[in-house]
Amino acid sequence: MPKTIKLFHILGLVLFFGTVPVHILLGQIALSYFENGDTSLAATYRMILVQVIQMLTLPGLALLWLSGLFSVFRSKGRILRQKWILMKLALVFLVSVNGVVILTSLAKELAFHYGMAAATGEIAEEITALTTQEDLFGTLNLLMILAICALACYKPGRIGKTATIKHPEQKVEQITAT
């Protein structure tokens, strides 16, 4: 991976992965204020969470996809011969769909319902169900993200493989791939 593309990939990682704990924290703060009756402050935190998703999480995910796809094209697809990369890409796809389609929608719906509760004083029954769904899909995304990190660090299938050097004049006969 060229250094510039690697830089964009790392920036995408920081933006995307870095917002995961922020998402959890803002959601819990909003829920705490909501449970204590301060629906206005709860709604504010929920709106901040939606802004974080739109301004940091989604652009980070886009950077990850663009830099990753560029690396695949640059390698002329050779990188896809590695099983760990295919596993990683499958998980990245699932994380992306879960994050963009499900979790982003849930965050927007919750922000809407929190805002309505703050404006009208009426608590929507959907908030509890939506919060449970967000917790479930958020936990699933976190577990998949951790699996992606483990795949990227350990690269299963590459560990312990050896490559024989084809030039006998070289002193080292085998190199262990790491």
From TrEMBL:
**UniProtKB keywords:** Membrane, Transmembrane, Transmembrane helix
Looking up InterPro entries in the UniProt record yields: DUF2269_transmembrane
The domain of life is Bacteria
Instruction: Please list every transmembrane segment annotated in the UniProt record, as residue ranges.
Output: 7-31, 51-73, 85-107, 136-154
Q: Please identify the protein, giving its name as recorded.
A: Putative integral membrane protein DUF2269
> Taxonomy-wise, where does this protein's organism fall, top ranks first?
Bacteria, Pseudomonadati, Pseudomonadota, Alphaproteobacteria, Rhodospirillales
